[in-house]
Sequence to fold (1125 residues):
Amino acid sequence: MNLYLKQLFSKIKCLILIYSFFSFSFNLFGQTDQYKIKPQIASPDVAAFLMYGEYNVGVNTGVPDIKIPLFKVQSGSLSYDVDVDYNASGIKVSQVASSVGLGWSLNSGGVISRSVRALPDEYAQRGYIDLNVSYEEKYSYTTNQQKQVYADLFYDGEPDVFSFRLPTGEGGKFIYDVSKRKFINDFDPGIKIDWINKSSYQSSSFVLTTTNGNRYFFETTQVTFDDSAWEIPLILKSYTQSWFLSRIENIKGESIAYQYETVSAYASLPSGSSVKPEWLVQKSFVKKFLYQADSRDYGMPREVYEQNLSYYTQVEPRIKEITMKSGKVLFNYTVPRYDFPGHQLNSIDIYADQQIINKVVFSYDYFVGNNPVTQFDYRLKLNSLSIGVSNDQRYGFRYDMSHPLPATNSTAQDYWGYYNGRISDFLPKIKPLALPGIDTDRYVGGSDRSVDTSLIQSGILKEIVYPTGGKTIFTFEPNFYSGQSNTELNKVYGNLKVTGKSKRIPVHDTVDFVVNENVLNNTGYLKIYFSPLKPPGPYYSPPDMQVVRLIDLTTNQNVIIKNRSTNYTQSESHNLQVSLINGRIYRLITTVVDEPSDNLFNASYVEASVSGKYHATANRNIFADGVRIQTIENFDHTGVLVNMDKFNYSEGKVLRELKEVDDNHYFQKLKIDYQCAEMIPCACFYDRNYLVYTGQANILGPNIFGRHIYYESVQKIQYNNKREITGKIGYSKNLSLAVPYSFHSPNSPYQKEFVNNMVFIGNAPSESYYKWDNVSGKFILQRMVERKYDLISNPLRVMKFFRTKIYVNPTCAASQVSIDSDLFGQTPFMLYIPVYRLSRETISEYDANGTTISTTNSTESTYDDVFGQLRTNKIQTSDGKVKRNYFIYPYDYIDSTPFLAKLLEKNVIANPIESVTLVENGGSKRILGGKHFTYDNFNRLHSIYELRINSNGIVSNDFKFSNRIKGVIFPEGEQTAFLPDEQYEKRLECILYDNFNNLSEVLENGSLSTSYLWGYNGQYPVAEIVNAHYNDVVSAIGGQSVVDALNSGTVTADYIRQKMEILRSNLPGSQVTSYTYKPLVGMTSKTDARGQTEYYQYDGLQRLQHVLDQFQQLRQSYHYHYRPQ
Fold:
């Protein structure tokens, strides 16, 4: 908890009661406050820390978390931060810049998008949802007619996979579960997902309701079009691809609204051409080999090479305006882009009422390729951004420009899509399968898609310069893993050099060798060099004077005999193919005869060697999938180092080996009738068989946040400003790879279809903290936090239907379906929607030597199976004490008590109805604390009850959980109706709420009343009046008309202070504390019960700058430093 919240809760007694229970129970997403039991009067007199320069690194990915916060969107108790973040995994060749620059993303709203499997789920009567056919029923299908309706996409047999992101940054994926008749998601099982008007092309929308009742409406749609192939079913030619967030509402009625616009622009380029609608063009390639050809295929080409283009022309809606309770945010797009048929985001204006209070301005340039001509040679580059009405706060960005990026439609890509400088057709450099009619002497393709470590950092962010002049420098290194790679090796089996003796006497030499490898195509090479000869005498002719022979000793047969030519005055070189077969023994023999010579150095000679190429696997470091962070260095404004972090990684692991990636073949069987004209019904007579290889940019298969390599641990080594080690932090987080990520699909590359079933074990990693000891030169362990997670797997069984044979002429299908028994097939597979929950956290503290554990605290947690919410936790300390906390929610009761039914109706299920603390000591169990809560019919807190208890507690057999019979400890036993234990006492009662659903009066312990007045359209509390009833407060201040005036859009600080003085004068027995605000900025003054006022001033960036006392004298100043300072 930060200092601000600690001070706040110390002032508000009611919230202390709530916080002690809720603080450990819910994540940030679940804690979005709907009702302030007593209002959070946000005094700005607290420390504000901006950590811009400290970057977390993804444990599994090695990607630093780089974010620049811009401003806050706030409407009453609804709020979130807007920022731009940078994906520092590397720039891919086909990557198109967003409206804020290449690699950058603006997080200002929310979106739902999907991957359509088979047909869109919402297809009326024939889509996955309306069909409502279970996996078990599909599994029982045996006839071709049953399978055909799914294989030919007449019916939708597979659920679409939806991805979502909320403006708070949380997100995940969801799919429709037929057995449960609802959507399930991998973020929070308690989220309720409703598809509104799903079958309506114009008005389809989603509503996501979180467990605190917040509703996110996704009503602005983006439709995708595909007219590229006539055989695509009509429903796939046009369907809704994405839904954009249009508004947020909470149960108080507060809301945030979003407006979008879809505008295209076609800028004129320096080359004279203009931007075209196709903003992304991707190339793919196919190599088909005809095998087992039918006689009627005479004249058909045995190899077919195809190039395909796919492109995107639809421009998605862009955010135009965000409307809040007392303000708005305007997004200004003014300059058309060179690289995209739209505009760049030039500025953002933030208004409170009609006054601009903040501004963000973006400055751009372009990453430009060599000799730019078309839009594909440009990428939008964010040079800097400035925050503040007067552009007070400027961030500058520097990128790796050592090598220019190629065009976005270039094929010079490694396996993972990064630039490697080698243009290719993506087809693998492997030999095709040995099938009848296929030439296996040639490669399928010649692509070299290996990583070029000098190019993969092209265009990546290298430096951030802060408003103070300090900077952070990022140094990256290639990702790699240790694995086996197929390597083509050349081996020399035998070599000789034989020199004559100048005596007309034959000189021989031999070498024997064994071939123990599968030489490629059983073909090696015999390299020979014959030196020049002196003029031969009458005894020998030149061909007999230099001879090389290779003998297969296994068969005792000559492999080859090579004599020199009759032209004895010139040297000769030969490179001859020879047969080399694995397991055989060979002998290489060379012979030289030469004429007498006065100088032995002029004697003739022969050199010969036998070599062969073969494939071998070898363990080595293999570069893979972009870059990871190596060091982060922070410098001050003078360029002096402040500190440095260096990162070490565990062994990298890839989700798919490259040898598997290369072998991407599948078989295509076409039903052919060469006499049929297209689209004319007729019989299909025979199969045409193809072996197909594909070349495409992307690796198919699972990924982790888009990455195909991961690490299970990372160490951050910390250095001071002298580059001396000061300590280190170790982070570790395991992944589960047990789930399958592919299934059989014969008409797809690899004969597989891939699903991303990656399972993430938890969010926060385990951590180990070390200090550096200069004397021993070692790290000494000081603290360890171990985290273990349990899985809620949510597996969904799905059946895939496919054709084993494809009709070239689809009109012939009907005549074959009943008689061709192998025409259709099916494969079962799993889609996983896993949710992880922290089940155990152990914190161990070590002594100065790092050897003895001084204290240990361990917390074990369990969660309910349906909604994934915290059910129990067990806290065990090093002294042996065990404390258990139990949590009971609105859905844990058997009948619908009215207030519980209302909570369930609005999905307000995150807040427990009862919490109980039990302590075990030996064999005894005693209740040491408990609270329960009731709500009104509008889901507003009504009362808080607390157990009346002494220091010894209550024996568990004498206590009744509110949903169990007396003496039964939850969750054991059977549920009951809501009936709390009689030993509960009411500690707080919410007496009254205003028209904005803000708390107006609260009664504590049945005697002390505290009232609240709200202002600024119900957004901020302007007065807390202790020891006064609300009706008396309204009367004392001048009536309801004054209360209404406090909530007008034109209320001033002077008006509030004037009315508060009247209130103090008319209620002398009460303590009145009053407040004024600048909407969407912060508190401007606070007057306490003694009448003393403190004033707060803000800088141009709307940050607290000065605190003044009642005499307007400076009391405190805030100076903001950006790390590095």
Observations:
- The longest strand covers residues 605-635.
- The CA atoms of residues 857 and 877 lie 4 Å apart.
- The two ends are 25 Å apart (CA to CA).
